[in-house]
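Re: export button greyed out
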Amino acid sequence: MSATTDRALSALDKNLDASLKRLFELVSISSISTDPAYAKDCRRAAEWLVKDLESIGFTASVRETKGHPMVVAHHPGPDERAPHVLFYGHYDVQPVDPLDLWENDPFKPAVREADGRRIITGRGSADDKGQLMTFVEACRAYKEVNGSLPCEITILFEGEEESGSPSLKPFLEANAGELKADFALVCDTGMWDVETPAICTGLRGLVGEEITVKAASRDLHSGLYGGAAANPIHILAKVLADMHDETGRVTIPGFYDGVDETPPDILKMWQGLSGRPESFLKDIGLSIPAGEKGRSVLELTWARPTAEVNGISGGYAGKGFKTVIAAEASAKVSFRLVHRQDPKKIREAFRAFVRERIPADCTVEFHEHGSSPAIQLSYDSPLLNTAKAALDEEWPKKAVMIAMGGSIPIVGDFQSFLGMESLLVGFGLPDDRVHSPNEKYELSSFHKGQRSWARILAALAEARAAGRLPG
Amino acid sequence: MSATTDRALSALDKNLDASLKRLFELVSISSISTDPAYAKDCRRAAEWLVKDLESIGFTASVRETKGHPMVVAHHPGPDERAPHVLFYGHYDVQPVDPLDLWENDPFKPAVREADGRRIITGRGSADDKGQLMTFVEACRAYKEVNGSLPCEITILFEGEEESGSPSLKPFLEANAGELKADFALVCDTGMWDVETPAICTGLRGLVGEEITVKAASRDLHSGLYGGAAANPIHILAKVLADMHDETGRVTIPGFYDGVDETPPDILKMWQGLSGRPESFLKDIGLSIPAGEKGRSVLELTWARPTAEVNGISGGYAGKGFKTVIAAEASAKVSFRLVHRQDPKKIREAFRAFVRERIPADCTVEFHEHGSSPAIQLSYDSPLLNTAKAALDEEWPKKAVMIAMGGSIPIVGDFQSFLGMESLLVGFGLPDDRVHSPNEKYELSSFHKGQRSWARILAALAEARAAGRLPG
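Workaround output, generated via the alternate export path:
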């Protein structure tokens, strides 16, 4: 390890408390992107990041979109030969309801002890504020002790990742020249376990869709009309129940077009990963894999597509009882895509599937909630191998290559709009409860995550200097 | 018609404005029984009724129950030979949500013009405050001009009819001696059309049930867990979709035990009723009967049982999108019963049906929301024939015998606890939007309803005096 890297790592150790204070400031901003009521908070988070990046020496600005703003920042490298990386993260967070299930205020972050481990609590502590700040802190420390950064760095922070990234593609297209780098670093994924870092090479895509079934022109008394008037909840329930067959397979025609069977050697590698498959369901109070029969939990969540209902509503759901037949009923449905599934075709196939099941005197309305194709990255590239070696140095166990069930739309866009390979390294853990009450981020993830980025940036610069990393 | 009746009818005509003012006072009290937040308003409505009945000369009181109070009032007859009637109504109303669909404040009643007809607007204007006040006003006018009432009258007003009447049976049992009369008059039903009064001889029963399916111990990220973790909305949708087969028949085993086929002559009589069957669905924006195939709309709503989902909720239903797999999902389900269907057996059969469809690692909880058996009254009795003749005199068209899709639990209880025959006469109309936004009551229903009760009370006394009405 070089002296410059060593100094940066020491500075990160020394500055941990100060870095936590900064993270707390960011987490305390309730930047919930999906709810328009929090638009101002989203902007505040963007402004906070600009100010913080400027304090490190970045040229940073809040950049307007039709939705929540982007943050773009630039810092030159030490010389023209240094690699140019684009780092991506998102400052927006998920809603916090049901609020009463939180043990601590989601927007008053703190470090707490839990089962002998130290954790950072709060909405966004992991997804993605804690993660993106690991990179920012690595830059800060490196710059502080060495006066420069090892690479030329462009930063892009998005504010709509949790609501389908509607502004992302237009922004990339409009700013392609400014954002193009040698490759992209994305910090929004997880580790295998608390000691084992991971590089993610597969990501499921996403299609979000909201459907509203409308029947009678008004809510009806179920006594007067029950048995003769169409009930939109029944129609919706039938549609949703029809989406899966007895084997857990999705029944929408053409749904599996472009889905590959996972190669046997990859399945074998996943079978060799110890610990999580057994506890994966147990940790959440379940025991029976619910999806396609005959496939492992890792395969189901990493390499198979899904159709999931994320929300449903209709009729009277308050206290007590109301004998009403609702005028309409709604569901939010998302599809996780793998391999070459086409988001547009999936959405169209779903809509046709639904329309076929709507009685002639009823109607259905569709509302689109974003989409992204799945990503399959290389298992073996100079970028990946360089980063893997740097992670191997930092953590107790060697880095593993994994896939991920969630979507990170940006990765496909980086490939298609900017022609860049992405490296997906993140320090989340399976029990971080992202998108749920009591989200947390491991303190060790935050600290060793910072150290990992310092090592990776230095290693990329060294690899470039040694001719091992093409530009 | 006797001079006493004539005087009462004239007084009702003269007092219409004053009677409207009183009704408005009662409708303006938001006595929503199903929501505990309105408990005080329910009590206020009961107290208002006691005061009003006392002003007529009734001995009236608010009577405590475990839930909302009852109102009981007594007024002696003119002599010992006069018939003794028990009049029943309910002062509680349905919730008003969605409030934004109301054209006028639901608790600020008014008389308005609509399509050339004069209507009274407000929650409870029809169901059941407007209806019960037709009887109270008839008593007031008769007493005012004649100094006495034609019958001995006991009044029972309930405050939990819209929430399953949990206190009713215990109250009837505990007060059977006080409440027993020769027969019961119930004003909670409708007319055939605006010119044609109706006597209801069949009422569907009701079983209300809430189910909550629980899967994972917390809400999950659909990317991390989707495809492997059980989704309670899927399980619930499957259960609800399974409840009906392709022909619209309910599939719960034993559900049709005790259901009779309607006699051909009755079906023929219903086929002869003009006007409503054609417009029944059209009025609510529909055109295709949704229930069991091959049966008329009248048969479906009057003489066939149903299983209807009245409300469903689970996951994220707010604005935007949240890629969550919910920990639980709930539905409120009601069953309309006919003939000899046993509410207890229906509830048990439904629960077994649901439990069979819950995966072994998930759970389901049931919450009971009241029940009542169906009622089938005689098509031909001295009570019914006396009332029918009185209605024939008041209205432009002759009274018809109909059935009703809704439940009025009290009727069965009057039969089983007090051994009383009930007469079901009401002045609601199919377009009154009871249980929906913009509930209204026809001004002609309110006025001629008052006159109808004055005629019926007088006719019952005359029939008793002439030996045509046994006690």
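Chain B touches chain A through 101 residues (CB under 8 Å). The button fix ships in the next patch.
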